[in-house]
Amino acid sequence: MRFIPFLLEDWLVRCKGAKIDLDHSGAPAPFAEGFNPCVSGEAWLNEIDIEHKLTKAIAKSYKVKESKIALTTGAQNANFLFLLLHSSPRSPIAMETPSYSPIRAVAEALFAEIQEVKRPRKAGYGVDIRSFNEALYAGAKVGAFTNLHNPSGRKLGDDEIRPLLEKAAEKDALVLFDETFREMSYSKIPSPAFSLGDNAVSTCGLSKLWGLGGLRIGWLIGPEEIAMKVTEARLYSTHHPPVRSTALAIKALEKKEWFRRRAMRLAKGNLAVVKGWAEEERRISITEPDGGFHLLVHLPRGMNDEEFSIGLLDGFKTAVCPGRYFGEEGSIRVTFSCERNELGNGLKNISRMLGSTR
Question: pTM of the full predicted structure?
């Protein structure tokens, strides 16, 4: 098992000196807006009791049996453990492309090869079900998707997820859906994938909607036997998540609607700013997202997205993410979870960088 360099993490480290951050896809930390970080006596419960309380809170939120839930140390840990437990060095995995690079990197390390399931720009980043079917016929027993899609912000509705699960079921394949952005849909929230088929698992965590990624709390929901295996693997690897983080996660889940309203106000207001800029900035185009705090900005033909992002960072102290880190060269992923003035200045700097790039 060999992992490629973690380009997204390396880029985040490189961007630490940026004055304007258009590369943070989660909501801002909520503590200045009324979410109390004090957890009083619950922080002194033993690990098993507090984990049981969190499991109950997740079960209530999703209306699902507790036995279908596996707690993990973040959504990324949930993805890793699922793929580890269902990997094969002899068979491929069906992987959406463009894709969230940490999932793809783990898949490349654990499976024989990547069978790409195309999510083409010209189709609005919807799933090309024909390429998914081809991956299944090539022997893939696992598929991996994000919903909302990272990096485009495209939503897969229930009517799009069900055919994927039906095709996978014909080949006895399982399908992973990373749903860290799902509840940030601007319109109707799609159902969690696990509720649409017995061969689906959903993963999520507190990093995006909640702005609490530092807690390192996540979960997987799916068939009971999978949840049990993931729990066992987590106990052998990262053991128990910190008690204080777990207690604070329970408080956050109890206020989920408050967190959603907060995120939607910020996202919709800032998206309007981005759209207004894109209408005037004719040198680029955007793919409008269905939710979340991120979208793809498509650069002029032939422009190198990595060189552009480096120049923007070095010359204008503004951070965006090169699209090639997701498999979408020629584009940059721009996020809009910051203050309105910071966003406006960052977009102006992108225009200035476009003017200085030949």
Answer: 0.96
